[in-house]
From TrEMBL:
Family annotation (Gene3D superfamilies): 3.30.450.40, Hypothetical protein af1432 (1.10.3210.10)
Species classification: Bacteria, Pseudomonadati, Pseudomonadota, Betaproteobacteria, Burkholderiales
Organism: Rhodoferax koreensis
HDOD domain boundaries: 18-214
PROSITE patterns noted in UniProt: HDOD (PS51833)
Protein name per its UniProtKB record: HDOD domain-containing protein
Domain of life: Bacteria
Pfam families for this protein: GAF, HDOD
SUPFAM superfamilies membership: GAF domain-like (SSF55781), HD-domain/PDEase-like (SSF109604)
Amino acid sequence: MPTPLDLLIERMQRRGEFPALSAAVAGIQNATNSERQSVSELTHEVLKDVALTQKLLRLVNSVHYAHAGRGTVSTVSRAVALVGFDAVRNLALSLVLLEHMRDVKHAERMREEFLRALMAGSVASALCALSSESEEAFIGAMFQNLGRMLTAFYFPLEAAEIRELVHTGKYQTGEEGAAMKVLGLGYEAFGTGVARLWGLPESLQRCMRKPIGQPPVRPPELPAERQRWVAQAGNAVVDALLQGGGGPLRQVADRYARCLALAPQEILEATARAREKLAVLVEVLNLQPAAGSAVSQLLLCAPAEAPPPPVPQEDVLAPHALKASPPAQSGFAPLARRNSPQVADLLAAGVHDIATAMSEPFQVNDVVRMVIETMFRALSFQRIVFCLRDAKTDTLVGRLGLGEGWLATAHAMKVPLKTPGDLFAAVCLKGADTLIADTTEPRIAQRLPAWYRQHVQAQAFLLLPLTSRQMPFALIYADHAAPGGIVLDEKELALLRTLRNQAVTAFRQHG
């Protein structure tokens, strides 16, 4: 008598996509199983699919992987040499799922499922200290979602019924119990069954089976068991982010900290890095979710954590949180500047140059100079100043800069971090990227510090705080002489943040 798994596989086999998907996965897996781990075999399998090849190369050339090589990567062979065999294999497996699970009728649902799995993999990867472990964690956490993704694609009606049952709250085991009711087996059993059919490694199949019970109070001794908990943690973080608010995420961090031998704050920081990585993947793969959808919360630029220190008066900064500029702004007309593609190209070239520099022994000051020079040239700022925390006074002071009168501005800049009294201090203590388009606006003007009113008086400025463990340790300040002089689109904004994060990474690596 056929099992529920046999019946589901039989139904999938009737659709042309599943045999093609199975063949593609098997081809990649056979190349991976080669004793020589032959680069030529993996390259051959990837090149069979033109769309897969293009997407993989775009990913390898993305901001996330730019540090791995010099110049544009235009061949799969070079991609393997630069970012590693396992990394390319995992990217290929991930992209194969994406390419073969396209459904016009349910495009948004499949996009959400794929983004959810990608985010889980990204978080799990970020939780690992060793690159070899991170690649296994990525694919393990992602494939823990295989059963749900297959159901959403091949059995959309059943998937909708499962979601409805979960919403009723009748099943203590959540999705697994609801899936058992509708499909005859849980998502986990469905996913691991298909993985077995595809001949995926036993180690990956084992990682797809979620560990039972609460996380242990000590890190598991066996690497395979640790991988299961890392993958579980990655998916738990995603579930918390989808709930919204900082509480659930903090609870997950506290629950898994001892099991992973990490501090809760390190888990939150890994989540932030994973969100940045996901934002790059979304842009490269053109997977933008619908505005306001639950999964769009995964792409926020900062993780939902504990609330920032309270501002003792009405918070007038919220409307100035850094975001892409609209086509036209009330009160003034945006000034003419270089066209957006040129700005983005200059920023992206800087990201690449800095990544290359950081792949070799480097000095932090050199990286900082490259960061501010890239921003200054691309966006034609009047001046830009890099501030660093003075440990004795707990104050941010100007250190490096470029542009008109930057040295005088740097000498004047004093941002105390003990209290969020003025606008600069409030922004830094919040860690909030902020664009002030018009400093003459009354509610903004009254929050400007005295040193700014006396010595700077720029009409528009940008603030990009650098934080570590939720505390600011540096600040990038850039300004323009006219109101509305700083205009940013989504791509430019993402690249600015990437540059800032490269500076943070440089400080972190040098202790």
